[in-house]
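hi! just following up on the protien thing from before. the input was this:
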Amino acid sequence: MMLSCSALVVGLLLSQVRGFLSPSEDDNIPEEWVLLHVVQGHIGAGNYSYLRLNHDGRIILHMQSLKGDADLYVSDKTLRPSFDTYKLQSVTCGQDVVVVPGDFARPVGIGIYGHPSHKESEFEMRVFYDQTVPQDPFDKGSYTSEDGHKQKKSPQAAEEDFQEEESIFWTILIGLLKIILEILF
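and the predicted 3d structure came back as:
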């Protein structure tokens, strides 16, 4: 009887230790999400640390405050979001989660703020790509290359195409004006 009680206590302790050592947040992460990056850092009270997200698609930012309280601010309008200028935020004491929609303009600015209630905050952020969201095949900013891979057209490429069309237009117009002037004179 005493042996079975001690075995039960040891089993209970082992399950508690295993639960402590393996983070429970991994249990909530779907298999369809792909881990892209793991970022760890320290941030002083009242200070910001900035990151830039260039990856397309629906992105999930999982940030855990390991020490202190780090808060998360996200924007597609500025690369230096703060508690005054942001589109998405998570300001909990512990785990912060922000889902960046696929239609956010890239690059996306990520601001990590060290809350003044702690002298220093330590954080770990995991960046996931959600594969369950289908990509839009009619996206105007993309094209299929000769080798069959989908590639993104940069804004510079679109501007260069416009300038090339404009250049052809002016060349034709000047040519026509020269012909008209030769006929008249």
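The radius of gyration is 27 Å.
The helical segments are 2-21, 155-184.
cheers
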